[in-house]
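Archive entry: two folds, one per protein. Generate the first.
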Amino acid sequence: MFWTLPTLLTWARIVAIPLIVGVFYLQWPIAKINLFASALFVVVALTDWLDGWLARRLNQTSSFGAFLDPVADKFLVCASLLILLEFKRVTAPVALIIIGREIAISALREWMAQIGASRSVAVHMLGKLKTAAQMAAIVLLLYDGDIGVGLHTHVLGTWLIYVACGLTIWSMAYYLQKSLPDIRAKAR
């Protein structure tokens, strides 16, 4: 099921990542760059929900799609965080915590799958909350502009990225704690 519609949407998410990054190197006014990048990020992020919904609805789920989907998400988040870091819209510790957690939990899930204990690191509501906060924060920080009544998305985005960072640490601790019995059993 390499060329199903859901998988093509996931591939489109990966292909769009250089477009989001590339927007920041155009010779446009920064407000236009911010608007275009944040709008593109929203559209691309929505394909994550859409490809999952279509895969279930069309009965086109596959092992390859299950592998590729989180990879695309992680690429999207990491690339966006690196752009935000370059433009000083997030701090290096925040980017490092979020990117480091993504790498660590991906590795943990891979190892747990190899030892037949995938269920101990199955997606949990805490991880979904982390993702929602992270995606909303990234949109706000990419936009980096006024939204009326004296509100600036940088302030809201910064607040939300710290919430996402806290949820990142919490969810990582949760997944590590859930997998600890399986890790101990296999380490003997």
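Generate the second and append.
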Amino acid sequence: MPSSSRLTANTVSSSPFVDLDREAWRRLSASTPLPLTAADVDRLAGLGDPIDLAEVDAIYRPISRLLDLYIAATRGLHQASSTFLREELTTTPFVIGVAGSVAVGKSTTARVLRELLARWPATPDVQLITTDGFLYPNAELERRGLMQRKGFPESYDRRALLRFVSQVKAGREEVRAPVYDHLTYDIVPDREIVVTRPDVLIVEGLNVLQPARASAGEASNLAVSDFFDFSIYVDARTRDVRTWYVDRFLRLRETAFAQPESYFHRYASLSDAEAADRAEHIWDTINAPNLEANILPTRSRATLVLTKGPDHSVERVRLRKL
């Protein structure tokens, strides 16, 4: 049987993952309906992260079916546990973490999954939160000398993020999160996102799979990922992500950067060569070190790893064995 229609040898090796190529993955849910249209997909695509209906059909439709199965199984286990403990049966959100590098397409992945899962009968209410809202405000980052390390683990209010996710998982009626504005590159004062006991919450961010880090004064060594029921890491070769980042930077120069209120408005007048040089410098001095030191090492902690090729399409899928 050709390799394109079967699992790889990793399914019988000591690897904790089942490794499938694109075609093998696509064929896993041939009978699962695809409720999105091409117009839906165009609306969900991110800048610099091309995606089409064929990609959603081949990759994200099977993921939505797999998640539907996981959600049903988790609810069944919760019901069995409540019965055993003679507790009143309550429901809590199924929490999914989506991690990966800057410019790898994790935001598009999160948005597409939100749309697909919301169309399954068991999960009509799917909400999405990004960890950008838990970055320290720029003034605080400046005070701490962290502006050039924005996006690194230490630039986030870890306690606030942990408190938010734990309250969601505990079934609180309302849990509030800060709002981040990518145009001004800062937290928006006096604005919040309210999460109201969804069926599913997707938490998307660079460092959501970071393990717990013991530190002085911390009462708990919990990690955000401790509250995840399922996690996805969007992966690609570093050289490809670098290219995507530079391409996106050039496109932003003509869109968001062109707005006077943009934090990066100073880049709007750069020539193509100047903009490419600036983007490469930012990647090499900030994004690449963060990826190599903090983000990429968390890949093995994910339940599902999506590996993209140079054209942004997913070439391989690795699913952690139960």
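Annotation attached to the second fold: The first strand starts at residue 17 and ends at 21. The chain is about 35% helix and 20% strand.
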